[in-house]
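Project outcomes to date are best conveyed with an example. Our students and postdoctoral researchers have been running inverse folding experiments weekly, and each run begins with a structure described purely in tokens. The record below, which covers 127 residues, was selected by the lab manager from last quarter's runs and is presented without edits.
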């Protein structure tokens, strides 16, 4: 089992920044690819970003490219999402996910197959 706990959400003005963290416990963190999804009110959960277990590969959805950066620290069992130039449309609950098998390039289409999820952290961007 892997337990994931997100933190760092909050209220920020448009153009501002937030850094989300996801702390993992349980099985060996470095065996899992990690990523972030988000779900806005009334919308389906969508892929945001993912990072390989070594940190050498990253993937982003087009709407966050150039604004968000995913990173991980395997020594701290933590994955981060640095979010800059935030927009009101970034408002959502952000979820951390872990999976050892699904290729990063397929995460956007296979969120239902993620092995582990956190409970989410709310990000609200005011205009």
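After processing, the design step wrote out the following sequence:
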């Amino acid at each position: 089992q892997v337990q994931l706990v997100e933190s760092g959400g909050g209220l920020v003005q448009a153009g501002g920044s937030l850094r989300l963290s996801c702390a993992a416990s349980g099985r060996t963190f470095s065996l899992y690819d990690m990523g972030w999804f988000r779900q806005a009110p009334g919308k389906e959960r969508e892929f945001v970003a993912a990072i390989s277990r070594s940190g050498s590969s990253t993937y982003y959805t087009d709407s966050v490219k150039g604004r968000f950066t995913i990173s991980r620290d395997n020594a701290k069992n933590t994955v981060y999402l640095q979010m800059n130039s935030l927009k009101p449309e970034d408002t959502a609950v952000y979820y951390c996910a872990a999976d050892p098998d699904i290729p990063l390039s397929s995460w956007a289409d296979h969120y239902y197959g993620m092995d582990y999820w956190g409970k989410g952290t709310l990000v609200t961007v005011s205009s």
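The mean pLDDT is 95. Residues 28 and 83 are 26 Å apart (CA to CA). The training component of this project remains on track.
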